[in-house]
Amino acid sequence: GTVLTATQQIDSVYPAELKEVEIGDKVLLYEDTESETRGWIMGEYVRFDPLLILAVLFGVGLLIFGRMKGINTIVSLAFTFLAVFLVFIPAVMSAQNIYFWSILTCIFITVMTLLIINGADRKSFAAGIGCFSGMAVSGLLTVVMASIIRLTGWLEEDSINLYMLNPHGHIDLKAIIFASIIIGAIGAIMDVAMSVSSALYELKVNLPNASAKDLYRSGITIGRDMMGTMANTLVLAYIGSSLSMTLLMIAYTSSLTGLLNREAIVVEILNALAGSIGILLTIPLTSFVCSVLYTRKKMPAAAR
């Protein structure tokens, strides 16, 4: 309810400058404490409100199509955001052990998601074992390859700002790479593990006479169909998230050899490969665990 007079600074030199404010626009204002006039300056347009509406529509869609599962999905997403933004990121900002906190965050997200979405049953247990195995493979590969290819963590100009962020202890940039790989891959790995576990569970329920060998073979067959699309998901996600940086490097690097050996490009390739190999090994491991668990005790009868 307060009327303020503010200044919007527009410079035609910058092609991406904010458009001139119009009546009805919602903007963020910042107080200019450095000048003698101590006026107000426009900072940004309010952009979060439309995203909030889109998020609400997404939640409504989950509730309509997923019903109770949709509610569980929303709850698990909320806990995932809380784990990342209220636990993991503060731990990084305070220069704590990033390796420990990234692994702990991934374990929490996996256990929490599986328990909330599916409950404590054999499907969740089998998917959890497969998921932890794939995450361990991705993490181990990252550590080994980081040493072999001599990664430093200095990927761009912002790296020095991140490194010096905490005055009481520098942030480990190599550990940031490790965290970005396993946290980025855990979702896809969990998706594969749960899909294989659920499919084999339904197969055993509807075909009670299926042996452990039959279930394992079916899991491998199902996994082959998923493997290609999931690997593409990771590769395209990493390319899309760093597209501007990749385009700049291509534009200012004269040779392909030089480009492929730039640390920023190498890290993106390592991201995709480590995550994809984690997915690849999750499939047989989950299939094996399912084949053992689902044949040890009598399964419930198929729903009519």
List the helices and strands and how they pair.
Blueprint: E1 6-7, E2 27-31, E3 40-45, H1 48-66, H2 68-93, H3 98-118, H4 122-148, H5 158-163, H6 173-206, H7 212-241, H8 243-252, H9 256-260, H10 263-296
Parallel strand pairs: 1-3
Antiparallel strand pairs: 2-3
Helix pairs in contact: 1-2, 2-3, 3-4, 3-6, 4-6, 4-10, 6-7, 6-10, 7-10
User: Strand pairing plus helix content: what structural class?
Assistant: mainly alpha
Distance between the termini: 61 Å
Instruction: Give the helix proportion (percent range).
Output: 55-70%
Q: What is the H-and-E element order?
A: EEEHHHHHHHHHH
Q: Largest beta sheet, briefly?
A: 3 strands, mixed
How many DSSP-defined strands? 3
Q: Which segments are poorly predicted (pLDDT under 50) over 5 or more consecutive residues?
A: none
**Mean pLDDT rating:** 84
Number of helices: 10
Rg, Å, rounded: 24 Å
Q: In one word, what is the shape?
A: globular
How large a portion of the residues is in β-strands, by DSSP E? under 5%
Give the strand order, joined by hyphens, for the main sheet.
1-3-2
Short descriptors:
304 residues, mainly alpha
Task: Give a structural overview.
The protein has 304 residues and is mainly alpha-helical. 70% of the residues lie in helices and 4% in strands. The protein has helices spanning 48-66, 68-93, 98-118, 122-148, 158-163, 173-206, 212-241, 243-252, 256-260, 263-296; strands spanning 6-7, 27-31, 40-45. The protein has a 3-stranded mixed β-sheet with strand order 1-3-2, with no helix packed on it. Helix 6 (173-206) runs parallel beside helix 10. The chain is globular, with a radius of gyration of 24 Å. The mean pLDDT is 84.
